[in-house]
Amino acid sequence: MGKLTNFKRSLWVFHASGGSCNACDIEIVAVLTPRYDAERFGIKLVGSPRHADVLLVTGAIPRDFADKLRRIYEQMPDPKAVVVIGNCGTTGGVFYDSYNIAGPIDEIIPVDVYVPGCPPRPEAIIDGIVKAWLKIERLEKELEGKEK
User: Fold this and answer.
1) Nearest Cα to 82, choosing from 10, 25, 16, 148?
2) 25 near 125, Cβ under 8 Å?
3) Which of 18, 26, 51, 71 registers the highest number of CB atoms within 10 A of its CB?
4) pLDDT tens digits, 5-45
């Protein structure tokens, strides 16, 4: 894993839950509780995608939520990253090929990091967020290079 070097502030994360069973959502909450305390690493959950650097998405996405997920993604400022949490978001899980599912999340919005599991452990979620953090750092360096 790379070293965090350039990002000079906390990483703000927005959580969007599709049609999940809430197991992944509970593990995301566990990441924020005192046992794992992701805020000590600078990972902070925010209430609006307009303030977020990283989008955490859980669950198989129903057709009526697909457009909402696209709008959430488009509201985020650049540079941004998307992390899919759990098997349902990655492949459709047990809902694969269901009539009401819009498909895996990468067919709706671009995905940068996959965190597999049903549900994944909090350590895996933190690792996925750090990988997204590295991507954002790389994109910021590229933007700084273009501005000079």
Assistant:
1) 16
2) no
3) 18
4) 556 678 999 999 988 888 999 999 999 999 999 888 889 99
Pairing status of strand 113-115 against strand 43-45? unpaired
The pTM is what? Answer: 0.88
CB 112 within 8 A of CB 121: no
Answer for the pair 5, 136: CB distance below 8 angstroms, yes or no. Answer: no
Which two three-digit tokens encode residue 88? 């349902």
CA distance 63 to 27: 25
Per-residue HEC secondary structure of the chain comes to: CCCCCCCCCCEEEEEEECECCCHHHHHHHHHHCCCCCHHHHCEEECCCHHHCCEEEEECECEHHHHHHHHHHHHHCCCCCEEEEECHHHHHCHHHCCCCCECCCHHHCCCCCEEECCCCCCHHHHHHHHHHHHHHHHHHHHHHHHHHC
pLDDT band at 95 (very low <50, low <70, confident <90, very high): confident
Give yes or no for a contact between 69 and 61, defined as CB atoms under 8 angstroms apart: yes
Residue 120 tokens read as 């994944």
